[in-house]
Design brief:
By secondary structure, this protein is mainly beta. The protein folds into two domains: 85 residues, Immunoglobulins (Immunoglobulin-like, Sandwich); 104 residues, Immunoglobulins (Immunoglobulin-like). 15% of the residues lie in helices and 53% in strands. The protein is built from one helix and 17 strands. A hairpin with a 4-residue loop joins β15 and β16. It is elongated, with a radius of gyration of 34 Å.
């Protein structure tokens, strides 16, 4: 009887020991699986954004323990844009320029691992209108030129009209162009000029670009600060 009890006790102890080993091994395996690959940020550059147009880009990382959370930790995004915790950059930027910032991604480990990445977001105007030759008076003529740029990857159906408006609100067209402005085209010059009756004039430049394939319309305007005076000859 004593021998049987001792044998039974040994069997129970051996079973408990094997169970503890199995639990320990399973825990180590789960921990290794949870740790996974090292946390790495895969996004190193961003597509350019267009002024006041909807923008969306997803930042990507691999490894670490999900879920991952993102934030901007240095620098700043342009006004109108924001980075969500899931790594989606969205908004409609309201200022142009190149904006440099640093993002940090953290995993859900305890303790959490994190990685940082410097990025830059370039915001451009889809349709850019600038002065080529600033308006001026030449005798009875108001003249100058504008430079138009298509900074997108789509062709524009572009209309540009330049008006001289006198003190009574009467508008006279002193320049007009309607043509296809090819994608990624910079500084196409449009001259304007016309003889006008004496009086003071404001000059307004309005440009409208249409993209039929996306049903998009872009607008731009230039207005000089001063009025232009055509003087009556003595």
């Amino acid at each position: 009887m004593t021998l049987r009890r001792r044998t039974g006790t040994r069997i129970v102890r051996l079973g408990l020991l094997l169970g503890l080993i199995a639990v320990s091994t399973a825990g180590e395996a789960q921990q290794a699986a949870a740790t996974g690959e090292p946390l790495v940020i895969r996004t190193t550059s961003l597509p350019k954004a267009y002024l006041k147009q909807p923008y969306e880009a997803r930042l990507e990382a691999r490894g670490g323990i999900a879920p991952l959370t993102w934030e901007v930790t240095e620098g700043a995004l342009p006004a109108g844009a924001s980075l969500h915790r899931d790594g989606v950059l969205t908004g409609a930027p309201t200022e142009i320029g190149e904006f440099r910032f640093t993002v940090t991604v953290r995993d859900s480990g305890k303790p959490a691992y994190e990685r940082r990445q410097q990025l830059s977001l370039v915001v451009v105007a889809p349709l850019l209108v600038q002065w080529g030759r600033y308006p001026g008076v030449n005798g009875h003529r108001v003249e100058g030129s504008v430079l138009v740029s298509n900074q997108t990857g789509q062709d524009f159906d572009l209309t540009v009209i330049i008006l001289a408006v006198n003190e009574n609100g009467r508008a006279t067209a002193i320049g007009y162009q309607h043509f296809s402005l090819q994608k990624n085209t910079a500084e196409t010059e449009i001259p304007f000029g016309e003889n006008l009756p004496f009086g003071g004039y404001e000059v307004n430049v309005d440009a409208v670009a249409e993209v039929a394939s996306t049903n998009s319309i872009y607008r731009a305007r230039l207005v000089p600060k001063e009025k232009f005076q055509i003087r009556q000859e003595p």
